[in-house]
C-alpha cells in the first residue's frame, strides 16, 4: 500500500500509561503519543476479552488481570472464579480490538473489530496467547488455543478491525 511501517520499539519510544476507560481511548492515547514523538502518522491498538456476565470485564484490564510477569493461566482462572462467585451460567464473551490512527495534526480515527463466542473450561490448546485456550468463537467447535493460527487470524477481532482500516485507507 506504499507505507513503510516502523515499530515503536524500533524507534525506542516510551509506552504511555493506559489511563483511558475504553479500548478506543487507550488506542488513541498510544497512537497520539507516537505521532507526537515522531511527527508521523501512528497506528496503535488496544484489545482484550469482554465477558458478558462480568459486565464486560476484564475488558481494558485483560492484560493486567494476568499480572506481572504475565500469567494468563492465572487470568483465565480469575475469570472462571469470578463467574463461579456470582453463580453465572452465561459464558458468552467477545474479543474486542480498537485500532487508532492518529496524524501529526491530531486527527484521529478508530476502527473496531469484535469476535463473539463463549468461554469453556478447562483451557484447551497451546496456540495463540492470552485467553485463547478458553475462547470458542461462534460457529466453531475448538478454542482459539487449539486453532491453526492462520484460521484464527482470519476471523479474529484484530482481523475485523484491520479490514475496516484497510477499507477506509483505500476509499
UniProtKB/TrEMBL annotation:
Q: How is the cofactor bound?
A: Binds 1 Mg(2+) ion per subunit.
Q: Which GO terms describe its biological process?
A: nucleotide metabolic process; purine nucleoside triphosphate catabolic process
The active site of this protein is located at 46
Question: Mind listing the GO molecular function terms for this protein?
Answer: dITP diphosphatase activity; ITP diphosphatase activity; metal ion binding; nucleotide binding; ribonucleoside triphosphate phosphatase activity; XTP diphosphatase activity
* Reactions catalysed according to its record: ITP + H2O = IMP + diphosphate + H(+); dITP + H2O = dIMP + diphosphate + H(+); XTP + H2O = XMP + diphosphate + H(+)
Question: What's one Pfam family the UniProt record gives for this protein?
Answer: Ham1p_like
- Give me the Gene Ontology terms describing cellular component: cytosol
The domain of life is Bacteria
EC numbers listed for it are 3.6.1.66
**Alphabetically ordered keywords of this record:** Hydrolase, Magnesium, Metal-binding, Nucleotide metabolism, Nucleotide-binding
- What positions does the entry give for substrate binding? 47, 129-132, 152, 157-158
Q: What are the required cofactors?
A: Mg(2+)
**Binding of Mg(2+), residues:** 17, 46
> How is the subunit organization of this protein annotated in UniProt?
Homodimer.
Q: Provide the family line.
A: Belongs to the HAM1 NTPase family.
**What does the UniProt function comment say about this protein?**
Pyrophosphatase that catalyzes the hydrolysis of nucleoside triphosphates to their monophosphate derivatives, with a high preference for the non-canonical purine nucleotides XTP (xanthosine triphosphate), dITP (deoxyinosine triphosphate) and ITP. Seems to function as a house-cleaning enzyme that removes non-canonical purine nucleotides from the nucleotide pool, thus preventing their incorporation into DNA/RNA and avoiding chromosomal lesions.
NCBIfam families cross-referenced by the UniProt entry: RdgB/HAM1 family non-canonical purine NTP pyrophosphatase (TIGR00042)
The name this protein goes by in its record: dITP/XTP pyrophosphatase
Amino acid at each position: 500500500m506504499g507505507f513503510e511501517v516502523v515499530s515503536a520499539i524500533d524507534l525506542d519510544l516510551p509506552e504511555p500509561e493506559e489511563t483511558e476507560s475504553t479500548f478506543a481511548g487507550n488506542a488513541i492515547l498510544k497512537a497520539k503519543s507516537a505521532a507526537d514523538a515522531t511527527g508521523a502518522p501512528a497506528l496503535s491498538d488496544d484489545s482484550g476479552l469482554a465477558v458478558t456476565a462480568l459486565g464486560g470485564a476484564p475488558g481494558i484490564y485483560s492484560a493486567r488481570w494476568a499480572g506481572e510477569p504475565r500469567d494468563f493461566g492465572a487470568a483465565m482462572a480469575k475469570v472462571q472464579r469470578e463467574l463461579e462467585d456470582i453463580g453465572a451460567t452465561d459464558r458468552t464473551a467477545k474479543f474486542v480490538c480498537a485500532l487508532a490512527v492518529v496524524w501529526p495534526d491530531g486527527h484521529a480515527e478508530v476502527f473496531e473489530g469484535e469476535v463473539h463466542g463463549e468461554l469453556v473450561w478447562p483451557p484447551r490448546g497451546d496456540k495463540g496467547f492470552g485467553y485463547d485456550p478458553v475462547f470458542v468463537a461462534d460457529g466453531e467447535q475448538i478454542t482459539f488455543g487449539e486453532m491453526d493460527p492462520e484460521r484464527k487470524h482470519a476471523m479474529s477481532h484484530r482481523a475485523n478491525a484491520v479490514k475496516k482500516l484497510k477499507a477506509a485507507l483505500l476509499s
